[in-house]
Amino acid sequence: METPVTPAPEIQQSFDSTPMSAPQKKYLLEQVRKTKKVKNSAAFLTPVDPVALNIPTYFEIVKNPMDITTLEEKLKTDKYTSVDEVVKDFYLMIDNAKAFNGPTHAVYLAGENLRSYFVKTLIHLPKKGEEPSEDVPKKAKKPAPEKRTSLPRRDTQHSAADGRPKREIHRPAPKDLPYSNPRPRKKKSQMELKFCEYALKQLYDKKNYEFVYPFYKPVDPVALNIPNYHNVIKKPMDLSTVEQNLKNGQYVSAKEFKEHVELMLKNCFKFNMEGDFVYSCGKKTEELFKQLWTE
Predict the structure, then answer these.
(1) Which pTM was predicted?
(2) Chain segment 94-139, per-residue pLDDT in tens
(3) What is residue 226's predicted lDDT score, i.e. its pLDDT?
(4) Rounded CA gap, 49 and 59, in Å?
């Protein structure tokens, strides 16, 4: 789950209301694109889809939707005349999350961390009059060192000068999960666990990050302000624990792996209300896992 909220530094009500300069626009675009890669950005990357997330009342509560992709597009097409307007839309995006989800919801808490990250980048925003001149000559590149030709190049297809055969160079083996359990396994079990490794990699794939990320780490009741979590959920489970069990050889068959993933999702549906963001993420993760399992 997400890290504790870091309060955003105070920002002046009017950060810079003068017309935006080209270096400022370039800098802001770079920071917005970096913000899209921050893990707390997942729920804010694209416009909210009330149908997909099963939240039909969203537009009744949020009158002015905003997301990072829309903000980036407005910035690229010169829809903002000042830095103030960019910051105002970023704050609007996070305030919308609070208005719809409440101040203790995981999405809003992630948004506050995201706001803190973005505001800190504004510290280095180019100021008017301090921008580098366009005609400043670039530093000349240092000439590349001359290649030495006094030594003969080794030929990997022939023997060395001393008569010994050359050592063949092989590609490194793929980094599969190392199973440390020394117990011998049947061939069927080994194949099943290889499939579990594949399924886990798909769950961690960046194309599924937007809805799987709430399950990457154990739930932190303190950070998420849900002190009753362990009163409701007696057997917590998350993907990092599943991955560690797989690495350490704790699963003898795919059935045990599947049971733990299903327990993780069952906990999600038990603690979160239907229609909540995390509940919807759980449904999408469940659908993906079922598709993987049919293979």
Answers:
(1) 0.47
(2) 999 999 988 888 888 888 888 888 888 888 888 866 654 444 444 5
(3) 85
(4) 10
Name the residue type at position 118. F
72 touches 32 (CB < 8 A)? yes
Token pair 């694209």 is at which residue? 46
In the chain, the amino acid numbered 74 is K
Q: And the tokens for 208?
A: 């599924």
Q: Which residue has the tokens 């699963």?
A: 251
Tell me the two tokens of residue 61.
């509560």
**And the tokens for 159?**
């023997």
Q: What is the 3-state secondary structure (H, E, C) of the chain?
A: CCCCCCCCCCCCCCCCCCCCCHHHHHHHHHHHHHHCCCHHHHHHCCCCCCCCCCCCCHHHHCCCCCCHHHHHHHHHCCCCCCHHHHHHHHHHHHHHHHHHHCCCCHHHHHHHHHHHHHHHHHHHCCCCCCCCCCCCCCCCCCCCCCCCCCCCCCCCCCCCCCCCCCCCCCCCCCCCCCCCCCCCCCHHHHHHHHHHHHHHHHHHCHHHHHHHHHHCCCCCCCCCCCCCHHHHCCCCCCHHHHHHHHHCCCCCCHHHHHHHHHHHHHHHHHHCCCCCHHHHHHHHHHHHHHHHHHC
Percent of the chain with pLDDT over 90: 43
How many residues are recorded in the chain? 295
d(Cα 66, Cα 144) in Å, to the nearest integer?
49
Q: Which residue has the tokens 């609007």?
A: 92
Dig out the tokens for 182 from the structure: 């020394």
